Amino acid sequence: MQSLTLPTTEPVLDTVHMRHVLGRVSDQRGKIARMIESGELISLRRGLYASQRDLDPHCLAGPIYGPSYLSFETALAWHGMIPEAVREITSATVRRGNSFENDFGRFCYLRVPAAIYPIGILRITDSTLPFLMASPTKALCDRIAREAGFRSMADVGRWLDDMRVDPEVRWNPDELDGCAAGYGRPSVRWLQRFAERNRRLER
Predict the structure, then answer these.
(1) Cα separation, 30 vs 8, whole angstroms
(2) What is the pTM of this model?
(3) How high is the pLDDT of residue 5?
(4) What angle do CA 65, 148, 200 make, to 5 degrees?
(5) Partners of 108 in the beta sheet?
(6) Which pLDDT score is estimated for 1?
(7) Are 159 and 144 in contact (CB under 8 A)?
(8) What distance separates the 2 farthest-apart alpha carbons in the chain?
(9) Which segments in the chain show pLDDT lower than 70?
């Protein structure tokens, strides 16, 4: 039986890469299925595979479904803004919402407006694969934009308390302005006013 060596420099492989790795193997689909069964490959979604089991799941969210960046509770927890650990890895995308489940966990993707997509995105490099993460301000805006019924700054205060958002965190005023304009959601505009009134802005 032909022995294969998976490239160590490419921990995530798509179908094109696998065709190159498999070379002259006649039944490539069958070979991939056997590699998954034996644990040599981990299926991330159809046509995408991981060759290592010790990968940080955060770095897999982008390759699984993109363009996307980690946000919402996932980013809030990453930045230490909320105390709870988050099991589901949630990202923002300009495509339709989607979700995937594999050996690394559950990956959820929520749609955001194209106008706000490029605001406040950080590139995290301390992982096997670099990945994109919302800044603290952007993650908070993405999350609160999904809430309805905000009519005052008091509503924002109660929501922040319920979310247990760290009161010491300061938010970026430029990112708040961009998100308030791009989302056009009352909840984000009230968050912007709340930050200004309560001196939560970075200076």
Answers:
(1) 22
(2) 0.91
(3) 62
(4) 85
(5) 90, 99
(6) 43
(7) yes
(8) 70
(9) 1-9, 203
